[in-house]
Amino acid sequence: MKLHKPPKLELFSFLFSMPLIDLAINQILYEGRLWEDYRIWLYSVPLIFFIGILSWYSHICYDNWTEKKYPGLDQSKKRVIAKCLVLFLIMTPSILLIFFVYDSFSILGYELQPHHLLKGFAVGFSVNLVFETLYEADYVFSKYKESKNEKETIQQLSVAEEYDNLKSQVNPHFLFNCFNTLSSLISIDKEKAEMFLNELSKVYRYLLRNNEETVSSVESEVKFIESYFKLLQTRHGDAVQLNLQIDKEYHVYMLPSLTLQLLVENAVKHNSISKSKPLVIDIFTTAGKKLVVSNNLQRKTVKVPSNKIGLDNIRSKYELLQESGFQVIEDAKNFTVVLPLIWKPVTMLEKEKRTV
Fold first, then answer.
1. Percent of the chain having pLDDT more than 90?
2. What are the C-alpha distances in Å from 292 to residues 141, 160, 193, 307?
3. Which of 2, 165, 219, 301 is 20 to 30 Å from the Cα of 250, by its Cα?
């Protein structure tokens, strides 16, 4: 049979209190003789301590059984009532055992007195009441903490799953257009086709890698958007223009992965593009840890089908990261998106990694 290992609180409380209980019981048994007869210290004190160990361990096993039978916080009333029975099932028999054994064998000349039992029960009741309350409070606190951790884990799993769904939506639609462009360039300008293919490989290498990450640094996102823009420029020429003004102090800040790609892709998708009216995209940082993506507004006359992934995707990511400040501003001339930069975005990233 495997012995139950007592929790540290129960063990330390026993080791602290049992010597005091031992002295109190021997004081009841022998009164003034306790301080005069060395035999009491030699024989009776160790015996009471041994009986105390048996009583305490029975107490711990009973509490453990009770906590397994009524483990929930909503079962606290039943658990407390069951633990109160320890006074009759363990404490009372232990006190009776001590006094009747000592009287029956006349240990060191002891003779049972009625008031000795009352005093013994008073000591046992007081000790059990104090420590049973302490043990129950510790159990409730640990269950509350466990319940809270479970809720946080479930929430983290839910957030991670939702974030994974958002990341899986980032699937650039320009892939087939890029292949068509590459196919045309191969027959017209092989050198340019090779350069185009190199940039395309950089773009997709970044897409595959960063689509698995929650956040990316501003520096890496800007480098990526420069490669991405070269693909757009190969297809559209000077009809698409990109202006980057990024303060280097913000390079180490973070933003949701592939955010810039989504915004630039949306700008190209929903606006008419021509050499006479080029689409101009400005990406710049501002005071207050903001990154702004803005383009001149020249909506296509024919409405482009949209699944609304872009902006809703980015907004949802910021909400999951619990970062405020995301803004979409539109007027007659410009379409602007304000992205709050994140200094320490590790909370969401760490949570996701812990729950995977």
1. 15
2. 47, 27, 32, 23
3. 165
